[in-house]
Each structure stands twice: as structure tokens, then as C-alpha cells.
Amino acid sequence: MLTYIAHNTAREIHSARQVIFHDILTLDSVHNQLTWHPGNIVIPLNDAQKRFFNCLLMKVTSKQQIISIVWNERAYGISDNNYHQLLFQSRALLKRHKLPDGLLVTIPYHGVRLNEDLLLSSAKAYS
Known about the structure:
Layout: H1 2-15, E1 18-21, E2 25-28, E3 33-36, E4 41-44, H2 47-57, H3 63-71, H4 80-96, E5 104-107, E6 111-114, H5 116-126
Antiparallel strand pairs: 1-2, 2-3, 3-4, 5-6
Helix pairs in contact: 2-3
């Protein structure tokens, strides 16, 4: 059953053209960009970052599922180091574009999630 869910989730993530979080954050998979609407900030993404943020916005939090989706057919040759490097680079990318620290939260022994409460409260601060 878990494999079935993972395959369906991967298919949905790879086919999603745009994912919107409460009109605050939009992932545009066609143009490889993440837009934070309260600050009118557009962040260019590489393909791995695009798939990573797509996972988070679609509530995929498991490290193994994220690795499988982000690196797709090459997932078996990907180490934990690749995952941690992507996470580090994604945090740095958000920081460079002045988004609040703590948007990506590590879940010990599981993976990572998007800090939705922080996103919502940060957006209200811009209002």
C-alpha cells in the first residue's frame, strides 16, 4: 500500500504545473520558480529544488519519498548526503531571498516539512 501511495504521489508531483499555498506561496513548475506573494519575491529554482518544494507543498515529508521523487529514476544511486545538501541549499536559497528562517523544519528520523504556521504568520506581518 505504501508503495502505491508513493507512486501516485510521485506521479502527481511530476505532473503538477502549479501548487499554491494559501495565496502566500506559489510553485510554478513550468517556469521553475517559487513566488512568495506578501513580499512579491520570485525565487528561481533548479529542477531538484523545484521537485523538493513540490514535495513539501504536497505534504510529502519522508526523506526516502523525497529522494525517490526528487531524483526519480536515479534515486537508488543517491546518498543521504545528496538529500542533506539539497536541504542545506534550499534553506540558503530562502535566506538569500529574505524569507523567514525556519521555513524548512527537520523531522528527526523522518525527513522535513514546510513550517506552514510560520508562513501564515509571516504573511500577516506584511499585511
